[in-house]
């Protein structure tokens, strides 16, 4: 009994699907550097709209905000003054401790107040 054109097409499709299913697939997950870079892009302030100001630097040692900062004691003659200074990645400030910690997995680590201790 001979096959019709439609039956032959179906048979070819089945063979093609079976062949495709038999080929091993390799899925590539991003490596640590790529994950860190995507975190960096999501977390680091990449510029501010025109007319806005960058975060204040420094703020008093008793204060904290959304920006990752570290305490620096006063310099000679209180210049620069003591306070919590912005910490930068690629010249840009970083918002929130979780973002900082994701792009600095080896430390130094920021705490819940976005301060590096």
Automatic annotation (TrEMBL):
Domain of life, per lineage: Bacteria
Q: Which InterPro entries match?
A: TAT_signal
Q: What is this protein called?
A: Uncharacterized protein
Give the signal peptide as a residue range, or say none if absent: 1-33
Keywords for this entry? Answer: Signal
Q: Which PROSITE patterns match?
A: TAT
């Amino acid at each position: 009994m001979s096959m019709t054109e439609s039956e032959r097409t179906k048979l070819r499709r089945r063979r093609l699907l079976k062949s495709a299913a038999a080929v091993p697939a390799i899925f590539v997950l991003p490596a640590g550097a790529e994950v860190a870079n995507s975190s960096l892009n999501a977390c680091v302030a990449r510029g501010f709209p025109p007319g806005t100001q960058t975060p204040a630097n420094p703020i008093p040692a008793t204060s904290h905000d959304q920006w990752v900062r570290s305490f620096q004691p006063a310099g000679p003659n209180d210049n620069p003054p003591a306070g919590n200074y912005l910490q930068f990645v690629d010249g840009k400030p970083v918002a929130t401790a979780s973002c900082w910690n994701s792009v600095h997995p080896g430390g130094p680590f920021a705490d819940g107040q976005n301060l590096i201790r």
